[in-house]
Design brief:
GMP Synthetase, Chain A, domain 3; alpha/beta; globular; 2 domains; single chain; 302 residues
Length: 302
Amino acid sequence: MTTRAGFVALIGEPNAGKSTLLNRMVGAKVSIVTHKVQTTRARIRGVAMQDDSQIVFVDTPGLFRPRRRLDRAMVAAAWTGAADADIVVLLIEAHRGITEGVRAILDALRDRPVSGRLALAINKIDRVEAKVLLRLSEELNAAFPFEQTFMISAEKGHGVQDLKSWLAEQMPEGPWLYPEDQIADLPMRMIAAEMTREKLTLRLHQELPYQLTVETENWEERPDGSVRVDQMIYVSRDGHKGIVLGKRGETIKAVSQASRHELAEFLGRPVHLFLQVKLRPNWLEERERYSEMGLDFNDGNA
């Protein structure tokens, strides 16, 4: 049997559907999905099997105009992920077309050519008519020489298998990089923390979600097969603690229930999840926080 294995980087604007596509390719939720932009911080790798090929997906943060240190580190991580990949897939939202952000990404691809081959995936095709899709595909391919173009709906699954099969065929020959049953290279502690952060992001609004982080401080395997998980939610301002807790603790209770349910489903066993909220004013400037998210602290320099 000839095996293949390689890396695929998914790049695009925030909210283009990269995390949704990654999760569908892998067949499990390894990257958080919300309707808020810039929720993917770490370069999460999802591992997908297709025939005799292993595809290691790098789910990069959305490319946008950075303002803060964390933003700059995220954008740098996205380009690093693209530079290291065998194939780069640029994801475009069909209904938004060629936005200013898409033009900026295309310009950047010309200025800093990536070593891997480039493919285009036009996502959310169910939102526009066929003639609009065709025109968009022609314009994008005229603007940049993509090797292949795929029309997909990451959310509904349309066209995703065609993209996955093509990627599998393009992977370099070689041994698999991960065990066949492994779907992500993140520690379970971090996946659990990301699940809780997603629930907080969905529940809260405005700037707050980007000014908090979640860490799994304790992971205890119990004799009955269940697991106890203790997590700390760090906020940067004292007033945010009350927002996270909610009236009579309703918000954090709802977040805990939702996260516990999803984590138990993911692990296939009971989970006892305990959340606390703590003020940490300068966590956005702490080097170790960036390391934990797979980001380079120095990339956040202005």
